Amino acid sequence: MKPATIVSMEAVLVDLPTIRAHQLAMTTMHRQTLVIVKLRCSDGITGIGEATSIGGLAYGDQSPESTKLAIDAYLAPLLIGQDAGNVNAAMALAGKQVQGQSYAKSAIETALFDALGQRLDQPVHALLGGAVRTSLPVLWTLASGDSGRDIEEALSLIEQRRHRVFKLKIGRGDPDANVAHVARIKQALGADVLITVDVNQAWDEATATRAIAALEDAGVGLVEQPVPRRHRQALRRLAQRFDVPIMADESLNGPEDALELAAEGAADVFALKISKAGGLLATLRTAAVGEAAGVGLYGGTMLEGSVGSIAAAHAFAACPQLRWGTELFGPLLLKDDVVLQRPVYRDFELQVPQGPGLGLRLDEDKLAHYRRDRERVQVAVA
Ligand SMILES: O=C(O)C[C@H]1C=CC(=O)O1
Ligand SMILES: [Mn+2]
């Protein structure tokens, strides 16, 4: 392999409308903002990556704007001139000189892997040691805010053979009303359809104890992050108390959290996300801790567009255990995207691309159309 260095890095904010309102405990989304990273190398290859958050700062403490700033002001100047083919060395340098910023680091690592894959003519999953599956089961989130509409949406998606597992976003408003909403949907979809719920940290322990008992009675199969992320002892007591598995999402970032959660028996399932871990390699390290502890693994999403979702798909394809499948449906929630070939969903699964790198390319016209700074870019070109 000929040596290549990183010559430039650009972080572009892209605003895309969603196909419908997406209601979570903490916010309602009508659009999604992607941070698309383009990393150019001295051999002419450009790698791409994506960092995305949910509802700006509603999900966590990194926003698209703060991610772009971290890249523009710190990570790009640090990494330009470094060996583009040595992902471990670049990420170690970023880890040493930049604290936190896991979303930015994930996007940059993705772009390095995409470039390396193109250079070696190998898909990213091959660079991670090889895929153990060629497609990934994908659930769908029902979050329109209306039980009747959610039921219609689920029935139609089952009919289209697109999804057969559904996650319900709850935790907003009266917990009893939340439980009634879940029970209505579970009853309408029947015993064979797995229903999971995501509370996004909205309940205190007493509320969670009462509500999870009722959710268990209603037939829910998995409860995600019922209590605030730092309330790990509460999470542990809930995981020990109930038969229904409890999944850690916001409480789990990298391998260190995984180790502590596993040692304490605080979660039955881990929601892996490349952006929380700070990259594909850190996601696999987090997964390894879970696997060593016998914890179930689930391929989570930050509701990324195609670039971020496919990056995650390469990591999840290389993950030996993935007992709970994935939720990599982000591209389907967006009205449009900025790639030339949108991901393929078939028979309830996302097909993992087999082409070099990520296996997808940017649609530069779409990127120019949806980028937030398009007026300024047009003026600069004119
Ligand atoms: O897991 C989350 O909290 C965020 C995300 C995943 C699916 C969805 O609808 O929202
Ligand atoms: Mn979640």
TrEMBL record:
SUPFAM superfamilies, per database record: Enolase C-terminal domain-like, Enolase N-terminal domain-like
Pathway: Aromatic compound metabolism
Residue span(s) of domain Mandelate racemase/muconate lactonizing enzyme C-terminal: 147-245
Keywords (A to Z) from UniProt: Aromatic hydrocarbons catabolism, Isomerase, Manganese, Metal-binding
Pfam family, one: MR_MLE_N
Cofactor: Mn(2+)
InterPro entries: Chloromuconate_cycloisomerase (IPR013370), Enolase-like_C_sf (IPR036849), Enolase-like_N (IPR029017), Enolase_C-like (IPR029065), Mandel_Rmase/mucon_lact_enz_CS (IPR018110), Mandelate_racemase_C (IPR013342), Mandelate_racemase_N_dom (IPR013341)
Protein name: Muconate/chloromuconate family cycloisomerase
Originating species: Azohydromonas lata
